[in-house]
Design a protein that fits this description.
The structure is a homodimer of 250-residue chains.
Chain A: E1 16-20, H1 25-37, E2 43-46, H2 55-61, H3 65-70, E3 72-74, H4 77-81, E4 86-90, E5 101-102, H5 104-116, E6 121-125, H6 134-138, E7 142-144, H7 157-171, H8 186-202, H9 212-224, H10 230-249
Parallel strand pairs in A: 1-2, 1-6, 2-3, 4-6, 4-7, 5-7
């Protein structure tokens, strides 16, 4: 799979729209149209089922094909979001996960604000049938859920992108952001997990094996939710080292 | 062409969605889905190009076929809107017509208000290619225009219906909040700090003394911000014990 091409300049900017394991090329094309309708052109594709590029996506995108030309391709979600400071995950189904839930309107405002503060921002959209994996949702600071008829809530992929884009466009210029500390990127957090989880494995904490995936998700969710700063993530690294050192001394 | 069947009761209510001379049956089906997503089920069809009913509409509507069953068929726009007190016309192109222009959000609010006042309300959507005739637009009290990228503003029929429905749904009563997992109390957090901080003191992490207060504040802020659940705080206790244990083993 070709690598990302991060040197490619966004033309219109805005949050990255991250399509995670999309199935149908036509839907990728429809998403490109929905994005361009509302001035979004930074598409990231995580492992499209039928490979990439795809003529059918281009045919569907019609005059929005520049969005497809601009799209970057990624092997997995961590690779696609590594540079992002604010990651939001769209989901229709409620998840057993304690995480703030935003409407698309609130999400658009949060994205405007983060971008105005110089952060990198992206919104994850799952595959047509099943949506995002829990593992992907955990990586986000907040969930975006479209308020809809509970008896018939399912939207197709391009419609979900359309509604976010619509709110993004309407949110307009944000109020000037307070200059805050930069938030950690998803890669910063991933590095912390890559130290914490093996340590917990070694200590026998992530046991029994059949419960490990859920335990790991719950732990990641603790740290993903608060929107930690880069500095706070280094503090967590320090705490991890200090506790292990303490045990060694006792 | 069959007449209107005004005796048929709306199940969910809301404004009538009037599709004027729609071309593709699939799009009518997609509109039915978009309507039901947002609790709208009063569809009116003006002279669909390929006749009515249509199997292709039903296939596309999938579980929203009740909206199609409920749809009424009309010979022309005047017949379709005869009973309506408030008529809005969606259009992408600007028209040389002096008429108020509303966003979908404003239109949804206007519809809510009119319905609350006991009026009959409907929104006109034109055919896929050309949109509404000027003659139809003239019949409306106001125009509804979706704010979009001026360089790429065209939406398909079901998308236009979707955006109106989305705003309609949001303009209403907010759904009751879901009961989530109970959040940790301040005492739960304080208990965690009361174990973590002495451990970090002992490990020499909270050093030098003059910096200790600020370091402690920063660490507490990491955990306070996410709104942790009681369960997550116990997980943190477990992690703390596990890391110390790991150090003891190494």
């Amino acid at each position: 799979m070709a690598g990302t091409d991060s040197s490619r300049k966004a033309v219109l900017g805005g949050p990255a729209i991250v399509l995670v394991r999309p199935q149908l090329a036509e839907n990728i094309g429809a998403c490109a149209r929905a994005m361009l309708n509302f001035g979004l052109d930074r598409m990231r594709l995580v492992a499209p089922r039928d490979g990439w590029p795809q003529d059918k996506a281009r045919a569907m995108a019609s005059r929005a094909d520049a969005v497809l030309d601009n799209a970057t391709l990624h092997e997995d979600t961590p690779a696609a979001i590594a540079d992002l400071n604010l990651v939001l995950a769209t989901t229709a189904r409620p998840r057993d996960m304690t995480k703030p839930v935003m409407t698309p309107r609130e999400a658009a405002a949060a994205c405007r604000q983060a971008l105005a503060a110089g952060e990198q921002v992206g919104v994850l959209f799952g595959a047509e049938r099943a949506g995002l994996d829990n593992d992907d949702v955990v990586r986000a600071q907040a969930i975006v859920a479209v308020p809809a008829n509970p008896a018939f809530a399912s939207l197709n992929l391009a419609q979900a992108v359309l509604l976010f884009g619509y709110e993004w466009f309407q949110a307009g210029e944000p109020p000037p952001a307070e200059p805050g500390e930069p938030r950690a990127s998803a890669a910063d957090l991933a590095n912390f997990y890559a130290r914490l989880e093996p340590a917990l494995d070694e200590a026998g904490f992530l046991f029994p094996p059949e419960k490990r995936p859920a335990m790991v998700r719950n732990i990641r969710n603790i740290f993903a939710r608060g929107g930690l700063t880069a500095h706070e993530v280094s503090t967590l690294h320090g705490i991890l080292s200090a506790l292990i050192k303490l045990g060694a001394r006792q």
